[in-house]
Amino acid sequence: MAEKGILAFSGGLDTSVVVKYLQEEYNMDVITVTVDVGQGDDQKKIEAKAKKLGVIKHYNIDARKEFVEKFIFPSIKANALYQKKYCLATALARPLIAEKVLEIAKKEKVTSLAHGCSGKGNDQVRFDITLRSGSDLPIIAPIRDKNLDRVTELAFAKKHGIEIDSVAKRFSIDQNLWGRAIEGGVLEDPYSEPPDDAFIWVKTKNLPDKPTYIEIKFEKGIPVAVDGKSLEPIKLIEYVNKKAGDAGVGIIDHIEDRVVGIKSREVYETPGALCLIEAHSDLEKMVHTKHENKFKSIIDDEWAYLAYSGLWQDPLKQDLDAFIETSQKPVSGTVKLKLFKGSMRVVGRKSEYSLYSHKIATYGSESTFDQKMAKGFVELWGIQSTEANKLQKKRSTKI
Ligand code: ARG
Questions:
Q1: Together in a domain, 40 and 125
Q2: Which protein residue's CA is at the shortest distance from atom 9 of ligand 1?
Q3: Which domain holds residue 126?
Q4: Would the pLDDT of 168 be above 80?
Q5: In the predicted model, what is the mean pLDDT of the chain?
Q6: Ligand 1 pocket check: which of 122, 128, 254 to mutate, most ligand atoms within 8 Å of Cβ?
Q7: Bridge partners, 59 (sequence order)
Q8: Does 1 have pLDDT greater than 70?
Q9: What residue ranges line ligand 1, CB within 6 angstroms?
Q10: Is the pTM of this model over 0.90?
Q11: 362 found inside a domain
């Protein structure tokens, strides 16, 4: 009986090459699974492509709702930006895709699990760890195992009549509802500006001359309405992506530390994510105490680090989730963002749980804050610092 391998299939260069490798080099029957996480691809076309490559069976799974509710929403609650910049679009989708592959792997009684990740990226970490957490079957990753580079892959694709679209020839793209990652080609020179045509979600030219405002309403840390309209989760994210992208907001260009230690130049289009996280974190500052704010930013950083590093299922991440969930109880309210020619800033926020008190904060005559109380407070607050400084000065004059 032939060996049976299962593969998460995007229809792109890597996964197409892997189908052929599994068939030819590993003598396997191949089952492909395309998980829709909002990448916007035509599922019918991908299925046709898989069939043309000779797979024995292809599955299409619409996981968009699950992606938003179980992955994107928790990341908003965690204000998750890896290294303060990257919204984790790809990182969040991988464990979900791998889980779906596992479900079908069990049903189809496959003998191997395969993926199209290279040995240089983070995706191998995310796939391997999720697959390993749910199965002991061998994991085959031909791009990694055979040390394939893109030039070799393109030549292999050509030889096997695999069609590759022109964008894929210039860049390596991964996209879903939460963002679009663009890597490779000219972007590998970290000093050269990304060409305008690398971007499709965010407008870089002919931007509107008037500012765009966007009002986001949160309930317990989750965005529920935009511009006064209640929207279901997928629609809400699509709406913010479009509106912010049209205002030129959402491009990130930074140097990223990968799990395997490589530094890479990463370019993203993540308009919705940036707006929603900025609005959410601003609202938290209004409803949380200074102690909660300070501590939560440490938790948030760690959460983003674990999600990035493929440790989505780690017990520590679950513990952080529990803390974050409790912290979201008062995170309800509305935040107003102003978008203008690529810039984005919060210009207003309100909440029924607001800890902002006008009568305490005002410099006007209606203030109820007795300034005289501050004198003693400041003295005690700084007592150790001032003592230490005095001592240092005394010691250094002696030396
Ligand atoms: N650097 C990002 C991450 O590790 C994006 C990776 C994009 N992946 C890809 N296969 N092109 O999450």
A1: yes
A2: 174
A3: 3-167
A4: no
A5: 96
A6: 122
A7: 33
A8: no
A9: 90-91, 122-123, 172, 174, 181, 183, 256, 266
A10: yes
A11: no
